[in-house]
Amino acid sequence: MNIIDRRLNPKGKSLANRQRFLRRARAQIVKAVRDASGTRSIQDINNGEKISIPADGLREPSFRRSGDGGVRDVVVPGNKDFVEGDRIKKPEQQSGDDGGSEGSPDGEGEDDFAFVLSRDEFLDIFLDDLELPDLVKKKLKQTESTTPTRAGYSVTGSPANLNIVRTMRNSLSRRIALNRPKPKELRDLEDEIKALAESGEDPERLSLLRVEFDRLAAKARRIPYIDPLDVRYSRFEHVPKPVTQAVMFCLMDVSGSMTEHMKDLAKRFFMLLYLFLTRRYRHVDVVFIRHTHEAAEVDEDTFFYSTETGGTVVSTALEEMDRVIKERFPPSDWNIYCAQASDGDNTSSDNAKTAGLLEEVILPVTQYFAYIEVGAEYKDWLGRDSDLWRTYKEAGRAADNFAMRRVRVRSQIFPVFRDLFSRERGDSAAWRLGEEAGP
Amino acid sequence: MSDTSDLLFTGADWDFEKVQRAYDAIEQIAKGEMGLVTYPNQIEVITAEQMLDAYSSIGMPLMYKHWSFGKHFARDETLYRKGMRGLAYEIVINSSPCISYIMEENSMAMQTLVIAHAAFGHNHFFANNSLFRQWTDARGILDYMEFAKSYIAKCEERHGHAAVERVLDAAHALMSHGVHKYPRKRTPDLRDEEKRAAERRAYQEQMFNDLWRTVPKKAAAKMDSQELAERKRRLGLPEENILYFLEKLAPKLADWQREIIRIVRKISQYFYPQKQTKMMNEGCATFTHYTIVNRLHEMGKLSDGAMLEILHSHTSVVFQPDFDDRRYSGINPYALGFAMMNDIKRMCEAPTDEDRAWFPHFAGNGDPYGTLREAWADYRDESFILQYLSPALIRKLRLFKIHDESDSPHMNVAAIHNERGYREVRKALARNYDIAHLEPDIQIVDVDLAGDRRLILHHFVESGQMLDEAETIRVLRHIANLWGYEVRLLEIESGTDVVLKTYDDVAPVAEL
After folding, report:
1. Are residues B429 and B450 in the same domain?
2. Which terminal residue of chain A, N or C, has fewer Cβ atoms less than 10 Å from its own Cβ?
3. ipTM surpasses 0.85
4. Contact state of B402 with A114 under an 8 Å Cβ cutoff
5. Nearest Cα to B51, choosing from A18, A7, A115?
6. A394–chain B nearest CA distance, Å
7. Closest Cβ–Cβ partner in A60, A73, A116 for B172
């Protein structure tokens, strides 16, 4: 008998099969991922996902009998009280032929099944039609700055980092362990030999001493004072400074005119922004601010799923944002981003105030402010711009960290996002404000 | 059991030395007392994840790549992680040496059980059963799988994943119609397959396809029956091995596509005996492990605790719920096989008058293992039941036969476990295990050479059981893709030749 340990064999033998499976099921998975991203929260988008996909299209058909009709004889165990000739009423058939657990359309008992996509697989598919790497050119500067911090010792390094204390300590313990003769021992021995040789006494002891001296000298040569093994270098690690953090403000008008569809558009946009920022920064905070005629910071659920009514006063949101910045996110330490989604309604008396706040308070401290005007799916824009649109258009004209776009349907979100975030600074003259992204 | 020094092991942990000791003790009983003859054994320790890997690719250690294995893996993994399904304790491969996988997560008691079950029970069955001897080449299978894997990988490189996938999908759909069901002249030798594949290609390059030379003389008129017979003879029709027919004669396939079909066909053929002997094979392995661990326990080599653990898993394996139990999902092959083999042993050792009357040739012969070895060697599930299922066991399991006609509101109890019913029940149960009866009988009967080269198939309908329509159309589409022209399937009632249903002219959708 042979017994072989295969536990260390490469795992994931089925990885290639999994890839083929993913490729095969891609269309369904893309759909499932998109659906899933609608229901999950913004911060969760970065994790892997359990995806349920319909078995449709992943069928492995074969010739088989339909399972109903015909005559069949079956033998079953556990007869209690039947005798030959008994008649058993058939169980009720539920609506034609699909009953019992085999209710799926392929008759194979294959229902949808769930499997877990890894984080990368998920993002890959989620960002499938988005070219993230090219999104930011100069605009979002790499603000990562690092300081070297001591991080123990290493066996390699540059001479400048040689750690003498640690090296000598290693050398000493090695010499003690290997019993290397001390220089003093050798010197003493040498003196004694010299003395004996000069005096001419006790030649026997002299030759013994000479042999001993040779032995020790050879040993001292074999065991070097400092061995390459002893050498240690100080190691430094680059620890990022806390400036590599960003806060993202999500501003949304939640007055009655914002439909579920509009909120969904907004959410998708926020998700993309979040994903994008987490790839640039180590730490991203999200602040949700919703407003009607007054504004408040809320959690994500409330932000997207509660219904409020009331007038629309946009400036309150900007004021709230300003308050939160002052309180928790000093602009010197934080990269501040803001995305605002709105259907464009605003109380006309508020417009001037909003413009002032944006221009003088918000834009100076934010890295980037994106305004998304969300519209109903099947209604095209009326000829005229909304109040907010006109206000922002005016207020943002001079700023190069401000952009605005309109979105009506989901498919426009990626292009708009890409458009907003891939535009280089400095060519603001070329900005075609108010242009709607193509579908 | 005051003396613990006789014990093979104590505690749950296993190590290689303990496994070796247990193996030696098991071998002594298996070979010395039960007279089992096996292929040499190789035991491989793997992790749970590797076990998942292994059985998503139909249990073969080497397998070509295909998405359906990934799908099964994803499904199995999810079920396993959720705790909805345990892992098989073992996988054993019909090869020489016979490879048994054991999982590192198992306790030592479980390893003992698995070694007795797989390395001796299944191994003996593989090595001795006539179907396996006739149809499979245990020595060559791993080499062949290696060839298949690298061949298909090469095809993917050369022709692209998608093209290879299309052929494999189609071939998989026809897998159960890719076996020769009747014995051939020579025993298979998979080692030569690769060499022969090359020879075949060389030969085919010299030949042109004879199929299309049979241009009809009278184009529109009917061919006379003699000509028809000649044409069918030339094409080897009717042919029930659909994959074989397509591999040899489909006009549009490239050589590499034929080779892939051949690979799928060979694998299907390799697993064909397993399908026909599932119940016996599991019964044999279960009976073997049961006998062996009991002997070890008697001899004081297994502690009571280990024995209890083993019995716990043994009983859950052979559990057979009654038909009206919620857990009932057909007859458990482990339970039936184990019960029948135990019953044979009982009849050899302590027969009743009834047993003597029913089984005069072995009842009371006092040689249970010899009798069983003969049964294991010569039968498959269907014939085994027909030969060995005793009235005593029918009574014990309270088996009864139900007759079900689709248009009647009632099912009839046709026979029960009484004097009049035994033979009836036994015959019906055997038929439930008859592969030839279980799988629809579908044959290629003609190629319409005069017309548009349409391939014509017949399904010979038994007892009015028709094919599942949606599935059938999908499979026909696959056949059409391989064949390159339209395919027609007629469902014909056996005996009366009445055409019950026609699947008309399914056309290929894609160039392969």
Report:
1. no
2. C
3. no
4. no
5. A7
6. 54
7. A60
